[in-house]
Design a protein that fits this description.
The structure is a single chain. This protein is α/β, with parallel strands linked by helices. A six-stranded mixed β-sheet has the order 1-6-5-2-3-4, with helices on both faces. The protein has a two-stranded antiparallel ribbon with strand order 7-10. It is globular and about 55 Å long.
C-alpha cells in the first residue's frame, strides 16, 4: 500500500460536516490506519457514517465490506473509469469489494432493459467492466462479481420486499428514486420498488457500506431509515461527486462521475 501521511486526511477537512467527523475520528490513530482512511475517502463528495468508516478500518481482524452496483441499462462509457479507480483505492486499503450487476434494477427502471435481454446485457456489462479494471491494473481476483437475479428472486429476499412495502409510502418511494429512476408523468409501480430493492441489497449482499454517485443520496438515506425498521443494521454510504450533463453533437450525453 502506498503510504499516505495523516496530513492527507487533514488537508481535505474543511467545509463539510462529514470531514469534521473524519478529523475527530482519526485523531491519535497510527499512520497505517490514517493511510487506509485517506485511500477510502479521497475524492469523495460525502460520506454518511464517516466515523463508522474509521472504526471499521481500525479493525485488523476484519475487512471493510462494501459494494458498488451498476444497473445494466445502456452502454458503459468512459466515465465508468471513475468508480473503477475508486474501487482500486478500496482494494489498496484492504477492503472487500463486491460489484453488483443489477439486472433486475435495469428492468424495473421503466424497463430500460427488456426482460428477454437481461442475461446478454449483464454478460456484456461484466466483460466491459472487467476489461476496464484490467486496463488500470486492478486485480480481479480480489473482487466479487454478483448478478442481482441470483439472489433477488429468492424466497427470503421476496419476503423482505413485502415487509418493506408495508412500511414505505408512495411519496417516500418516489422521493427516494427521484434522482436515479426515470421520471415520467404516470410512473410504473416497478420504479417505486427500485429504491427499496437497492436498500435491501445492502443486507442480502452482507456488506458494511455502499459506494455510488452523489445522485444516489436519497436512496442511501432511504436505506438508513428503513433497514433498521426491518431489524437490519444501518450501513455506511460513500459518494463520488457528479459532473453536469454536457452537450455532445447536438444532444445530451449521460451525466458522469468526476475524479481528480
Amino acid at each position: 500500500m502506498t503510504a499516505l501521511h495523516k496530513d492527507d486526511v487533514d488537508a481535505e477537512v474543511a467545509s463539510e460536516p462529514w470531514r469534521e467527523k473524519l478529523r475527530t475520528a482519526t485523531a491519535g490513530l497510527d499512520e497505517e490506519t490514517c493511510s487506509r482512511v485517506a485511500l477510502v475517502t479521497r475524492n469523495l463528495q460525502e460520506v454518511l457514517g464517516a466515523d463508522n468508516v474509521v472504526e471499521a478500518l481500525k479493525r485488523r481482524d476484519q475487512h471493510l465490506r462494501l459494494y458498488w452496483g451498476t444497473a445494466t441499462t445502456g452502454r458503459p462509457h468512459i466515465a465508468y473509469f471513475v468508480p473503477m479507480m475508486k474501487i482500486a483505492d478500496f482494494l489498496k486499503a484492504g477492503c472487500h469489494v463486491t460489484v453488483l450487476l443489477a439486472d433486475l434494477h435495469a428492468y424495473l427502471d421503466n424497463m430500460k432493459a427488456p426482460w428477454e435481454l437481461l442475461e446478454k446485457r449483464t454478460e456484456y456489462y461484466e466483460h466491459v467492466i472487467k476489461a476496464m479494471l484490467k486496463s488500470i491494473n486492478v486485480p480481479l481476483d480480489k473482487l466479487q462479481f454478483v448478478k442481482g437475479t441470483t439472489y433477488q428472486l429468492s424466497e427470503k429476499y421476496t419476503k423482505d420486499v413485502y415487509r418493506l412495502s408495508s412500511l414505505v409510502t408512495e411519496r417516500e418511494a418516489k422521493k427516494a428514486g427521484a434522482e436515479v429512476v426515470k421520471q415520467v408523468d404516470t410512473p410504473l409501480l416497478s420504479g417505486l420498488l427500485y429504491p427499496g430493492l437497492q436498500a435491501l441489497d445492502e443486507e442480502h449482499l452482507g456488506v458494511d457500506a455502499q459506494f455510488g454517485g452523489v445522485d444516489q443520496r436519497k436512496i442511501f438515506t432511504f436505506a438508513e431509515k428503513f433497514l433498521p425498521q426491518l431489524g437490519y443494521k444501518k450501513r455506511m454510504h460513500l459518494m463520488n461527486p457528479m459532473v453536469k450533463i454536457v452537450p455532445f453533437y447536438g444532444s445530451l450525453c449521460t451525466s458522469f462521475y468526476y475524479y481528480n
